[in-house]
Amino acid sequence: MKRRSLLAAIAAAMLISSCGKNVFFFEAQSIQPVTNVTRVFVDAFGSAYPMEALSKVPGKLPSGSLYRYFREDVGGECSIQQPGSQTAELCSSRDSLVKWRAGQTKVWDGLAREIIAKAGDPNVPLDLVFLVHGFNNTHGNSSQSYVKVRDALNRHANPGRTLRFVEVYWDGFRSPIGLGAWGKAQASGPLVGFHLRSLFNSLSGEIAARKNQDVDLKILSHSSGAFVLGATFGDPSAALPEMQSIDNDDYRTFVINAASHNGAYRIPQFDSLKIGLLAAATPSTTFLGSKRYPGGLLVQDTQILLSVNPHDGTLNKKGLGANAPGTGATGVGIIARYYCDELKPSGALTSRNSQFVGYDFDRSGTELEHLLKDHSFESYIEQADRVTTFMADLMSEEKVSSDTTEGRICD
Q1: Percent of the chain topping pLDDT 70
Q2: How far is CA 176 from each of CA 216, 301, 355, rounded to the nearest angstrom?
Q3: DSSP state, residue 107
Q4: Phi first, then psi: what are they for 132, rounded to 5°?
Q5: Is residue 250 predicted with pLDDT exceeding 70?
């Protein structure tokens, strides 16, 4: 029986995290869509892909690492690169991780400038919306979901404000951690989120340079995108303590700088920030920390909108439970007490003028009851747009009151 239960748990974890495969955006990284959207591609270790097209040698991204791809010159990029390009910058930075990270800073800076270049008239207020998908989504799946999100948010656009989007595509890759945290494959998320700080900090500088423009930043994530953002805007070590002991330079850099408020890896701060978490596949300690790891969400002046769907089949591990041993904790998006008893009344968040606002996403008895257990981004987008005020509230310039959103969550 014990062996059968263990096998069931492992099977569920593989189903949840797709840990039997790796998903890279290597083939799609140079695709840039219409002028109101910027696409940002990030490898499993948090390195930004250059904006220029790569050679795309099939299956040749060594160990999922863009750094190794350039260091080993797998695609011959460094013999064909154009002077002054981001690719050329990475070629000149491939001798060591120290140089690589310096080169990456320049790539992130370039991406921030690209985003602002599409921001329209600096005298017109701007709503800038980042979209972050879940773990191991293919480019086709993610891009289709992003189209639906953009359509929904466009319906709630604020008159008189420019609306622009940034689509984040992050690689999924098997990790050395094992099944004990968010699942064997999901340890790439914190590294991606951690290095996205470079983009947001550079973007903050670009926004400050446009002194006359009122900019509201919005971020919408699905599923494991929640723990990506947990590492961008805080220290999620309490949810993934195994990272403290991994003898690996990428994780060591994260551990040392996870709660930093200064330097290159500082936690980004913005005057106006709203974060929407749909089907959040992470534990509450991502945002609250613990006695041993007292990090959590460390950003100031932020509202976090959180869907709570008690029937989500994926977050419930197909019946094993959100906190089933060996599968990783995914309870924030499914277990109401984490919101009602922990996130909502958090004194630590209140001291930073930050607040969680819960949304009742129980589909039973609604027009979406046929999607009762569905975890897909698309079904959450439909519900956030048509059945709840989630999308409208995310786009609103005003703070949201939980009195109008909670429904039956905390009954």
Answers
A1: 87
A2: 38, 35, 34
A3: H
A4: -130, 115
A5: yes
Q: Which residues contact 133 (CB under 8 A, 6 or more apart)?
A: 141, 142, 145, 146, 168, 169, 170, 221, 222, 223, 225, 377
Does residue 92 surpass a pLDDT of 90? yes
225-232 and 188-209 are packed helices; what angle lies between their axes, rounded to 10 degrees?
60
44 neighbors 26 (Cβ within 8 angstroms)? no
Q: Which residues pair with 355 in a beta bridge?
A: 303
- The overall average pLDDT reported for the chain is 86
The letter for the amino acid at 201 is N
CA distance 235 to 386: 34
The total number of residues shown for the chain amounts to 411
Q: Using CA atoms, how far apart are residues 342 and 356, in angstroms rounded to an integer?
A: 10
**Mean pLDDT computed over 122-137:** 91
Band (368; pLDDT cuts 50, 70, 90): very high
Q: Which two tokens stand for residue 186?
A: 């999901």
Q: Rounded to whole angstroms, how far apart are CA atoms 318 and 364?
A: 18
Helices (H), 163-290: 188-209, 225-232, 249-257, 285-288
Please report which residue ranges of 135-187 form alpha helices under DSSP H.
139-155
Lowest-confidence segment of 239-248, 283-292, 299-308, 378-387 by average pLDDT: 239-248
3-class state of residue 115 by DSSP: helix
Contact 91/127 with Cβ under 8 angstroms? no
Q: Strand runs (DSSP E) across 21-120, as ranges?
A: 37-42
Residue 220 has what DSSP assignment?
E
- Burial bucket for residue 114 (CB in 10 Å: 0-12, 13-18, 19+): middle
Please give the DSSP secondary-structure letter assigned to residue 273.
E
- What spatial distance separates the first Cα and last Cα of the chain, rounded to whole Å? 37
